[in-house]
Amino acid sequence: MLSSTPDLMIGPVFDTVDIGLVLLDRQICIVAWNGWMARATQKPAEEVLGKAFFDIFPAARRTRLASVIEDSFKAGSSSILTHALNEPLPLRGDGGEPLLHNTVVRPVSSTHVTLCLLQITDVTVSMARERVLRERQNARYHAIVDSSPDAIITIDRERVIRWVNGAVDHVLGYSHSELLEQKLDILLEADNKLMPTIASTSRGQRIQRPIPVVGRFKNGKTGYFEVMLGYWAADQADFVTTIWRDVTNRMIADAALREARDALEKSNAELEARVEDRTQEREIALRQLHESQKMESIGQLTGGVAHDFNNLLSIILGSLNLLKKAIPKDPRVERLLDRAIQGAERGATLTTRLLAFARRQELKVEVVELQKLLPEMLDFLRHSVGPKVVSHIDFPADVVAVQVDANL
Question: Could you read off the pLDDT of 195-234 as tens digits, one per residue?
Fold first, then answer.
């Protein structure tokens, strides 16, 4: 239905389009009202033409629609009012159900007048479709998060817990009601890395790696967790979703593995040290064995030579003694024979010592005065070491007697 405004040329399309169309003059009175509006309000055009728009919709006088219409006339501006952010008009569908609608307000100028056009679009079906899709998406989301083995906790910027999934019960020991509206601090030790990270990270920033956290279970015990963070916004508010994975058993196993590895390394080091010590001991023992075998060989050789030499000296001494008795008394000859006998006796003493060294002769332990024995050995020592080495014996006068084989 159209008004009879002489300067307004409105075609038949105005009444057949599938949206609501309303024309208002500067007095905010209705000058055009199409069939879609008549059906949505149950008010035909004859009933509303010429009447004030806010008399038909009195509740709209206190909404943003009134200021938008005024701005259209004064400033020539256009605006869109969505059903989600603005109070809707009382419109009904064919079945009497409320119509969700968006409203476009724009100025319209003809030859002599300026009008305001309201275009009202029914979005009920599309919003119902979006609601179904959103519910399905939410159902899938809840199915995923509720089946997650990790605890999922959403907090606001004040660290107040706004939402938790079902896993918080078996992961942390808390029920939904015990955590909701609580501070996240209830789950954390005083010294933790999670709160500083939340405070220093800007909105929308993604944390790439899990944060190691020492958390508290409901029973008061502590455990090790890896926490992932996700930032998001809704209705001009910031939220942080935290995903808590309990890694206590893994940390304990890692610590035990490290201890076992350290113990094994220590054991290996000790074993290597013992092997090295045994190797050194074996080398020393082998050297000692070689020395012992060498000395034994020398002793055997010395014993054999000394034994043969002793036999020769026995013959020489015997012959000299017989010769001394057989020849006439001659002082000069006797001195020569005495020196020969003395030399043979010294040789016999030497062979006796060599036999004692070679263990070919039984040891004869007796009381010996070192003051008398040692000077007798000095001459033998000097002949052994040679003339380049100066030898002398120095000992106190009160040296006590000892029991020893004098030949050693």
Answer: 777 777 655 566 778 888 888 888 888 888 888 888 877 7
The CATH number assigned to the domain with range 271-358 reads 1.10.287
pLDDT tens string 21-63: 999 999 999 999 999 999 999 999 999 999 999 999 999 988 8
- CATH number belonging to domain 12-128: 3.30.450.20
pLDDT of 5: 47
Fold of the CATH domain 148-246: Beta-Lactamase (3.30.450)
Taken in order 300, 303, 309, 314, the sign of the CA dihedral is: negative
Instruction: Give the lowest-confidence range in 33-47, 156-170, 276-290, 296-310.
Output: 296-310
Query: What is the predicted pLDDT for the residue at 2?
Result: 45
Residue 165 pLDDT grade (very low, low, confident, very high; cuts 50, 70, 90): confident
